[in-house]
Amino acid sequence: MNNRAPLIFLLPFLFCQLAVAEDVQITTAADGTQTATHEGRSFKLAFESSMKRFEAENAKDLRTGGVVFTGSSTFVRWESLAEDMAPLPVISRAFGGSTSPQLWYYADRAVLPNKPKIVVAYIGDNDLVQPTVTVGNYLKYVRLFVERVRAQLPETRFVFVSSKPSVARWKLWDKYLAANKALRELCETDPELGYVDITPTLLDAN
Hints:
Blueprint: H1 11-23, E1 24-28, E2 34-38, E3 41-44, H2 48-60, E4 67-71, H3 73-76, H4 81-85, E5 90-94, H5 100-105, H6 107-110, E6 118-122, H7 125-128, H8 135-152, E7 157-161, H9 173-188, E8 193-196, H10 199-202
Parallel strand pairs: 4-5, 4-6, 6-7, 7-8
Antiparallel strand pairs: 1-2, 2-3
Helix pairs in contact: 8-9
């Protein structure tokens, strides 16, 4: 018997990790803050505490095969998620303040361990508010996130929730609308990607 045979199953994970490692440059400031740069876009590696919390929760009770909700603070603040989604087996792996490249970068720690059948993601608010981030760049990391999850979980389906309107960012609403349109069009190209537009629920005729 070849004792190395089981290691074959590690190859997709290792290739995924190597691809990210080769493409991302990480710098550390004097205060210990780390910044990653990938293809011209820089983002903070500021979610170690969230990742450690997810890992601790998984070590205590690893739930797999359900529905993972991930993304930024809109999902973090959804404290009644389990109750609202019952009887679906849901788990929250959202981390507040996250952007699309951070969702992509942390996917192996925030999403993959739970081997979800469905990933529901709310991401974009914190991308689009940045003047230097285009709709195209935002969508690029949405695609990369999907590809990274699919590299290990090819049967996983995705549902992306549109970026919401808010008073604080209303002056950017046209940019948000463009991003939502691009996200919807991306999802329309793939039967395993779903899109939920929450705008009609949050805005009336006025």
